[in-house]
């Protein structure tokens, strides 16, 4: 699959998030679980829902609904990010210091 620059950034972000949130020694397992979930469950469910949408609503309405869903998700993500930032003050994404 070729999605361009943003898909490459997505993979880097998922790998970084998995490494930063995993317990020491489980980084590779956490990354594997996240990537497997995205590639199997996410892609499979997306294909099934898109197929049902195309059969039920047609191509134009399916893309319209998908765009509305994605736009709503983006707005919700921005709102949640701002709420977390306001609550914490600053979001720290650096690696924890080793003792």
TrEMBL record:
Where is the major localization of this protein? membrane
From what superkingdom does this record's organism come?
Eukaryota
Q: Does the keyword Transmembrane helix apply?
A: yes
Annotated Gene Ontology cellular components are: membrane
Q: Which SUPFAM superfamilies match?
A: MFS general substrate transporter
Q: Which InterPro entries match?
A: MFS_assoc_dom (IPR024989), MFS_MFSD6 (IPR051717), MFS_trans_sf (IPR036259)
* Swiss-Prot/TrEMBL keywords: Membrane, Transmembrane, Transmembrane helix
The record's subcellular locations are:
Membrane
Per its record, how is this protein called by name? Major facilitator superfamily domain-containing protein 6
Gene that specifies this protein = Mfsd6_1
């Amino acid at each position: 699959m070729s999605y361009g620059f943003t898909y490459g950034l997505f993979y880097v972000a998922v790998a970084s998030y998995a490494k930063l949130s995993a317990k020491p020694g489980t980084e590779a397992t956490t990354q594997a679980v996240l990537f497997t979930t995205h590639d199997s469950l996410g892609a499979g469910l997306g294909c099934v829902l898109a197929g049902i949408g195309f059969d039920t609503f047609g191509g134009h309405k399916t893309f319209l609904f998908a765009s509305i869903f994605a736009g709503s998700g983006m707005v919700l993500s921005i709102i949640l990010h701002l709420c977390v930032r306001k609550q914490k003050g600053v979001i720290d994404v650096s690696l924890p210091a080793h003792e």
